[in-house]
Amino acid sequence: MQGFNIAEYFGIKPNVLDMTNVGGSSFEIHAAHAKRDIAAGKAKVALLTYGSTAHSNARAIGAGGRDGGMHPADNMDRFSGMTLIANYAMVAQRHMHEFGTTSEQLAEISVATRFHAMRNPEAVKAMEDLDFINIRETTIEDVVDSRMIADPLHLLECCMISDGGGAVVIASPEVARDCKKPPVWILGSGEATKYPENGGDICTSAAVQSAPTAFKEAGISPSEIDIAMIYDSFSITVLTLLEDLGFCKKGEGGAWVEGGRLRFDRPNDGPALNTDGGGLSSNHPGMRGIFLLIEAARQLRGESTSQVENAKLAVAHGNGGMLGSRHVAGTIILGRD
Amino acid sequence: MSDKPVARPLPKFDEADTAEFWAGTKEKEFRYQQCDNCQKIIFYPRRTCTGCTNSQLIWKVSNGLGKIYTFSIVRLSYHPFFKQQLPYVVAWIDIDEGPRILSNVVGCDAEDVKIGTEVKLEWEIHENLNIPLFEPI
Ligand SMILES: [Zn+2]
């Protein structure tokens, strides 16, 4: 349901409507716009909603046809048979070529998110419902030994396709102070787009534009972040975004993630990644951005199933579209009192 | 159900900006644009320069040589045509004159494809246009 359908369903008469649809990062963009519109006095409370039955509808998201629409880029790309997974795989292939990144390093991301998923009963239930085999913590060997889907990406480096839904309420400070739950503050936001350019760098995403804007507004640096909720459509998405968000330098992501560094129980080694289990191991109904905000808020309220002790600052970064061609980035920095 | 062979999805001629490119493929010409003002290479085809907004873009013809910028071997597809082609190689190709195009690498074992491999145009023949694929030299 779109925003206006939700309004009708609940009998709400909103003053602001934002049905921006840029795929997986839509909800980070909605959050940024909600903050802006509340600050401008146009609204007091914003309701962000998402629901999808991608699994039940048997939508072939990752390996389906991509015949596209009728704009010039679609008319050039249609004949190639590029699947969504192959698009991301081409980023991984180039990242390996330029920086020596390995499949074992990329697998660290899948292993860390599964580690978190196994601690989250809702994630385990989702994997059971989707008939995952071997629902357990995984090893790097499990990941690199899994079936190749689009070289160099293996099955366990690709997110699931599930059903799912979520909602976020964003309110003015006056309203938030009176709510039952402790408030989580939006400290900064950034949005950007990236597209293929002749001679361009496929290993760098739109996050290099959205993240500095968000961090500057928040007045903090990436090294202060406790929780990194990063859109894990694929392992390479996270690796690229860790670099582009500024946690490490471009090309150093592979070495940086080694040794289980992204786990929630390694608070001195930088942020914990996707503590709900992520799109790789908890849910991915097609556009996962809302769950990044939800789990970040849970962490900052001490409610996560993989709780980082005394978590104060979180980043939620959505990537909508395709990492290896055109996509939209939304970065949200969150903090608590 | 039906044994009718499914064809490769083809571009549409009524897309205004790219029609000239596809018309060129019928002549086995790989056409691209260059800005008459700032000399920037424009690809995919457009009506304005992405460097300076000038709309005087000159059509040129490439020699059809290039290098593989990056690629993937597709091993899973549910598309009625492409699932018959598995495994196949999708790649971003850097054409020597500057354009970067998404295409397939053909005429070789998919396992032998590498970044940096030099390739040349290999036209796949269709009725009203030809499809620009690439083959290692
Ligand atoms: Zn120009």
Characterise this structure.
The complex is a heterodimer of chains A (337) and B (137). With 337 residues, chain A is of the alpha/beta class. Chain A starts with a helix and ends with a strand. Chain A has a five-stranded mixed sheet, with helices on both faces. A two-stranded antiparallel ribbon of chain A has the order 1-4. In chain A, strands 2-3 form a two-stranded antiparallel sheet. Chain A has helices at residues 3-10, 26-39, 72-77, 84-99, 103-117, 121-129, 140-145, 173-177, 207-218, 235-244, 253-256, 278-281, 289-300, and strands at residues 45-52, 148-150, 153-154, 164-171, 184-194, 227-230, 272-273, 313-321, 327-336. In chain A, helix 5 crosses helix 10 (235-244). Chain A has one domain (2-336): Peroxisomal Thiolase, Chain A, domain 1 (3-Layer(aba) Sandwich). The longest helix of chain A is centred in the N-terminal third of the chain and has 16 residues, at 84-99. The model of chain A has no long low-confidence stretch (mean pLDDT 95). Chain A contains 13 helices and nine strands. In chain A, a hairpin with a 5-residue loop joins strand 8 and strand 9 (327-336). Chain B has 137 residues and is mainly beta. Chain B has one domain (19-136): Beta Barrel (OB fold (Dihydrolipoamide Acetyltransferase, E2P)), CATH 2.40.50. Chain B is built from one helix and eight strands; from the N terminus they run H-E-E-E-E-E-E-E-E. Chain B has one helix at 19-26, and strands at residues 31-35, 41-42, 57-61, 65-74, 88-95, 100-105, 118-125, 130-136. In chain B, the strands form two sheets. Chain B has a five-stranded antiparallel sheet with strand order 6-5-4-7-8. Chain B has a three-stranded antiparallel sheet with strand order 2-1-3, covered by helices on one side. The N and C termini of chain B lie far apart (40 Å). The A-B interface holds A 60, 62-67, 70-73, 75-83, 85-87, 89-91, 93-94, 97, 147-153, 196-200, 202, 324-325 and B 8-12, 15, 17-18, 21-22, 41, 43-46, 50, 69-82, 85, 88, 90-92, 94, 98-104, 115-116, 131.
